[in-house]
Structure prediction request, 333 residues.
Amino acid sequence: MSEPVLTFTDRGIYCPAADVYIDPWRPVDRALITHGHADHARAGMGHYLCTDTAAPVIRHRLGEIDVQTVGFGEPLSLGGARVSFHPAGHVPGSAQIRVEVGGEVWVVSGDYKLDADGVSEPFEPVRCDTFITECTFGLPVFNWAPPDEVARDINGWWARNAAAGRYSICGAYSLGKAQRILAALDPSIGPILTHGAIEGTNEVLRGQGIALPETQRVTPETDFKAMKGAFVLAPPSALGSTWAGRFRPASTAFASGWMALRGVRRRRAADRGFVMSDHADWAGLNRAIRETGAERVFVTHGYTSVFQRWLAEQGYDAGVVETEFDADDDGDD
Prediction:
């Protein structure tokens, strides 16, 4: 019996034919990286390979690393494998990785979503025999509203706060979610202020030609009284902190797919919860899997046991892969 195209090890997903790992969570010599979030792009690898759009953010986070880049859809021969990267729609530069060995095709999805967000390259289904899919939101309760509807809700909340002289402080992860919110904002409502962690990522992405509205980094010199009514974008860790306490009066919000669950909204202790995720919802996961044409599916990070059982009931050869990826909604902070 021939060796499988990919195997699952204690260091990550491994391709024997190419002698490379995909998104490894322990140091290896050669790593293929789907995207720049910290649970997928980790320090300590000897050599990194990722898309040309993902590389600047990965360098920004990891410092001086040995990294090679590739364009979307550009095939590479690595040992006995043929490898290519295809848009995942998760964050700018995020990719699904297609691996072909001896005519058999496996695809590692990384993280993905199907709705276009205005900043990431739109998701493209990739035909394969075996698909390794995330299932962060692999329950029917997770059903995302159209992006333009969420944008209207956020802008309406901001406009009402601005009219009352209140800041609007919104928590969002610094890579992907923050830029998605920025792309949805109506700058005519007022100024947009950003935490340094988010603005650092914004600067990297702007340097790549990704269009974002004008923002102002919050510094000790910021004139807070003159900025009342501003939209303030900060990483979740800054909500409720001394940093956020400088904005008074204020209304707070959090943007995440987990806001679909009432208990999570209560624990976040924010005034508003906007249901916005950079992962596929239940319908998106099922649609993506169908469009691959795969007969075998491995599920990882999320509601794995429930989703695996569902896929098996639909006739798929379905299994669970244990990984060390974060099942949070883009947990990069």
Q: What stands out?
A: The first strand starts at residue 7 and ends at 8. The chain has a mean pLDDT of 94. The chain has two domains: 7-141+279-320, 147-274. Helices lie at 55-62, 147-163, 177-184, 196-206, 242-245, 262-268, 282-292, 304-313.
